[in-house]
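Revision sheet: structure tokens.
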Amino acid sequence: MAVLGLFAAVRAAPGPWQRVACAAAGFRGRCPGKGYAVGRAQSQPTFGFLLDIDGVLVRGHRVIPAALKAFRRLVNAQGKLRVPVVFVTNAGNILQHGKAQELSALLGFKVEPDQVILSHSPMKLFSQYHGKRMIVSGQGPLVENAQILGFKNVVTVDELRMAFPVLDMVDLQRRPKTTPLPRNDFPAIEGVLLLGEPVRWETSLQLIMDVLLSNGNPGTGLATAPYPHLPVLASNMDLLWMAEAKMPRFGHGTFLLCLETIYRKVTGKELRYKGLMGKPSILTYQYAEELIRRQAERRGWAAPIQKLYAVGDNPMSDVYGANLFNQYLQMAKHEGAEKLGASGLLKQRPSATQSCASILSISKSCQLCLQNGSSV
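Predicted:
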């Protein structure tokens, strides 16, 4: 398992992270120096990696040099991975194959689309909603992403705004100059699909609330808001994320927080999700575990993958999520997944995974926390 020591390539990091990386690699005592020799990788690996992307492998549109150096040590002379690897990101405003191509160019390694898990990828499992008419929020190839996930009948926020112009009233420049005729030919919306942060938050928040409060008929009004409300599926719970800016940026989790707060203020009730995807959701880690297993099978690695190492830079999603999944695995060994209330959405054979270890990739902000004595 010496190959795991490759993620100690960030040698400038403070002592605590270096010790964690070396411990994960199986090194005992003093960590090897820069010139240490990595032993020959196991022909039958029993572990795999779940790698975050932003802040771990790349920063904005630039690959992190130390991460590139570490990743190359996971690839053999034939250009094949020595261990199964899945890239797990909370990004969602891009197509899966597009993210794979982007990673391939940055890493100099052919990344297959089925090695990439976007924040909304596990929505493929929610087939009971795939036939419903859903309003979809986000940006990028929104409709195409929804269709790839299996949703056959989606309406964008912009399409809803065009159908009911009087709903979007915040921007004075976009307010209708005349009152349009009411229409009653717009089919009812049956659910809400939140794939990522939108551009015009005020428009999306207003129209999604209109859908929820009108039971899917935003051209009408109801005396009392229905509860339980229409099903809501959401992905990417990151409150903040790191890009090129010196301070964290708002993530889709911030948008969800706004929606939840507005719904609670207006109705006095809690917004309930039928599914929450993306890290730290256990379902996302179960989905990643299944892809790791399939990858190992395709490579002809018969030894079961018993341990996963999840590398990320966000304590609230990457570290918390991996530790939550590890806790789930430990409880499942003793009580069984059924007793733990597993959703049953992912039909897979009994898991061979025994544990999931989190590894925090140190950014400048995390280094500062460690230097100041904070714990993460």
